[in-house]
Amino acid sequence: MKKLMAMKGFSQKALANNSGVSQKTISNLVANNGVLKSPAVSTVESIARGLGVSPAELLNYQSAAASPTEDDPYRDLSCLIRDFLAADSEGRKAILRVARNEAIHAKQI
Fold first, then answer.
1. What integer is the mean pLDDT of 50-78?
2. Among 68, 71, 79, 103, which lies 20 to 30 A Cα-Cα from 62?
3. How crowded is the C-beta side of 38, counted as CA atoms within 13 Å?
4. pTM for the whole structure
């Protein structure tokens, strides 16, 4: 995110104004190398729109046309996020249901 802000000439305040996301959230993302505990998809989409890039570009994920390599430790997560961002509202709900069920199952192991 820092690189994109620098490339586009955005300060944190300018990005906040351009994206509609609070400056505090932008500041937290910049301070934590883009990591928030549970960023809302709408936040990612708003910031991406504010920067004039796709959410996948903002998150530095591969494009929908490309597939992560087999040795990528985040391959499954990358694919899930790519599919989530490409899905419509019903598709996103279905993906969230599956993820929630997987999380519940993982806690029982």
1. 65
2. 103
3. 0
4. 0.54
